[in-house]
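Progress note, project year one: complex with KG4.
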Amino acid sequence: MATILAIETSCDETAVAIVNNREILSSVVSSQIATHQPYGGVVPEVASRKHLETLNPAIAQALTEAHLTWSEVDGIAATCAPGLVGALLVGLTAAKTLAILQQKPFLGVHHLEGHIYASYLSEPNLEPPFICLLVSGGHTSLIYVKDCGHYEILGQTRDDAAGEAFDKVARLMNLGYPGGPIIDKLAQQGNPKAFVLPEGQVSLPEGGFHRYDSSFSGLKTAVLRLTQKLQQEAPELPVHDLAASFQETVAKALTKRAIACALDYGLDTIAVGGGVAANSGLRQHLQAAGAKHNLRVLFPPLKFCTDNAAMIACAAADHFNHGHTSPLTLGAQSRMPISDVMQLYL
Ligand code: KG4
Ligand code: ZN
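Model obtained:
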């Protein structure tokens, strides 16, 4: 049983958590959304500075809430890739410094592996193999989860991530940031069949379409053209119908690909992670399709879907239990495929 303190600073949340294997002892998340809102997106330099201000109090709070002292912590972890390098470096440097001072093992964690482990927090009995549909502001991936540290990327987006598409479409409709929750709310009162939008398929050189890869930039352009056309016809945009039609198109595209992966690979469970897992349209479509095909579909509670350090600590605890630790020379990387996770460990 490993007790791990982990730090997550890969984007715009400063988070610190302590877990004992799959049990959360404390989880502190300080969001920077309000800071970045005036800019309509995350400003990397501002994010790094904000992490620096917030991190030390968050570490102290995590220890206090878990009622632990350093002597009871087995290892110290931090997200090291992928993400904003300046932001990652704040958490990574803090974790390595603490590991030296407290003479504890250090573990670097791949952010996407953390998102996979979010499912273990809400379903402690879950065991691989399963499919993970990871849909966030930066990623849209279908991952074959084989074992701790062993992943195969089956599908990904060829352009915009699903969350990015929500944010961009919200921006072009002047709805605000972040766009996902705003579009989701408007969509509840709209007609998803009001407008027919292109799903965005990825062509194969030999003909036909890729079964697992997705593409959302064409859909975004289609919404842009449609809004321009509608604006010429009437001063007020039918935002509810537009939001519902866009959301339905994304939800159906993701559902189709996730179900295809599970069926093709003979896996009976799909675990969803990332901020877009909060989307009501995706939840409805994927749950219904899963039930039809006798597949178990797991949507963790939202607090585990969006960025947090409990999922990072949970991944680190499993690696620790497998005897994995990272060298103190480990650096931050803006990009790194999840299939390379084992390169982080000795
Ligand atoms: O996982 P996350 O918190 O951060 C990373 O990108 O790692 O995901 C944030 C993304 C944003 O693009 C946001 O618009 C989207 O998740 N999102 C949603 C919803 N809630 C958040 N997208 C669709 N529907 C939602 N309800
Ligand atoms: Zn994330």
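The chain has a mean pLDDT of 95.
The radius of gyration is 20 Å.
No further modelling is planned for this target in the current period.
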